[in-house]
Write a sequence for this structure.
C-alpha cells in the first residue's frame, strides 16, 4: 500500500491582512514602530533636519533675491502720453495683450514671473503717467500694447528722476484688495474710477508731491486652480477649513461669508 500525504495551504498573513482584519491595531503598531524608530535615531535625525531646513531657507532666499535682481537689472521707465479721449475698454485690451507675459512653471521657478508697475506721480507741474517694464520683458511689446489699447496714445522711454523730493517728510502705505481673491474685480463702471484719485491729487504746492504705484502680473495656473476650487466650495455652501480661517482672522484678512 502507498501512503498519501495531504498538504494544507499555510495561514495567510502580512501587513495587508492585519490592516483588513484589525485597522485600529494596524495603525497602533505602525505608530508605535515609528515612535521607537524616531527615538532611536533622534540624535542623528535632529541635526540633519536642522541643516536641511536652514539650507532650504537660505537657498529659497538666494533664489528670491536673484530673481528680483534679474528683473530689476535693465528695467526701463516708459512715459505714457495719453490722448484727449481715452477708450473705456482700453484696460481690458491692454491686459489681454500682456497675458503673453505668463511664463511656464519651470521658468517661474528659476527666473521669476515678471510684473508691470503703473505709476501716477503728481507735482505742482501736473500729472505724469509711467509704466515700469522689467529688464526681462521686451520693451517693444509693452509699448505696442499701450498704443494699441488706447488709440492716439504715445510712449517714450524716459530717464526717471527721484520718485519724491529729497529731504522731505514722506508718508506711505500699501493697499490690498479687501475681498477674497476668488471674487472678480469690477470692470464695468458708469464713470471713470480714477476720477476721484486724479482729483484728490490736484493742486499740489511746490513742496508737495504724490505717487501711486500699481503692481500687477498675470495670474498663474496654480492661482487660477486655487480660485476655482474655493469658488466651488463657496457655491456648495461649505466654509473653509478651520486653520486657514483662523490664520485669516489673525492676519486681518477678509473672510468669505458662508451661504445658508
Amino acid at each position: 500500500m502507498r501512503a498519501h500525504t495531504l498538504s494544507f495551504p499555510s495561514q495567510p498573513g502580512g501587513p495587508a491582512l492585519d490592516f483588513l482584519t484589525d485597522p485600529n491595531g494596524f495603525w497602533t503598531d505602525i505608530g508605535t514602530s515609528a515612535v521607537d524608530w524616531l527615538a532611536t535615531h533622534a540624535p542623528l535625525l535632529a541635526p540633519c533636519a536642522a541643516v536641511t531646513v536652514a539650507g532650504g531657507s537660505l537657498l529659497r532666499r538666494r533664489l528670491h533675491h536673484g530673481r528680483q535682481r534679474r528683473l530689476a537689472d535693465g528695467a526701463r521707465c516708459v512715459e505714457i502720453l495719453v490722448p484727449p479721449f481715452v477708450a473705456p475698454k482700453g484696460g481690458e485690451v491692454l491686459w489681454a495683450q500682456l497675458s503673453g507675459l505668463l511664463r511656464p512653471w519651470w521658468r517661474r521657478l528659476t527666473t521669476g514671473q515678471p510684473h508691470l508697475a503703473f505709476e501716477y506721480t503728481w507735482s505742482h507741474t501736473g500729472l505724469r503717467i509711467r509704466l515700469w517694464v522689467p529688464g526681462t520683458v521686451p520693451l517693444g511689446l509693452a509699448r505696442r500694447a499701450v498704443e494699441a489699447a488706447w488709440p492716439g496714445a504715445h510712449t517714450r522711454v524716459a530717464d526717471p528722476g527721484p520718485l519724491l523730493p529729497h529731504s522731505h517728510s514722506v508718508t506711505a502705505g500699501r493697499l490690498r484688495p479687501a475681498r477674497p481673491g476668488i471674487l472678480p474685480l469690477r470692470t464695468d463702471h458708469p464713470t471713470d474710477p480714477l476720477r476721484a484719485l486724479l482729483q484728490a491729487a490736484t493742486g499740489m504746492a511746490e513742496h508737495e508731491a504724490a505717487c501711486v504705484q500699481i503692481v500687477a502680473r498675470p495670474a498663474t495656473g496654480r492661482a487660477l486652480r486655487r480660485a476655482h476650487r474655493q469658488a466651488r466650495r463657496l457655491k456648495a455652501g461649505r466654509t473653509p477649513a478651520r486653520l486657514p480661517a483662523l490664520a485669516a482672522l489673525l492676519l486681518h484678512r477678509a473672510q468669505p461669508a458662508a451661504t445658508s
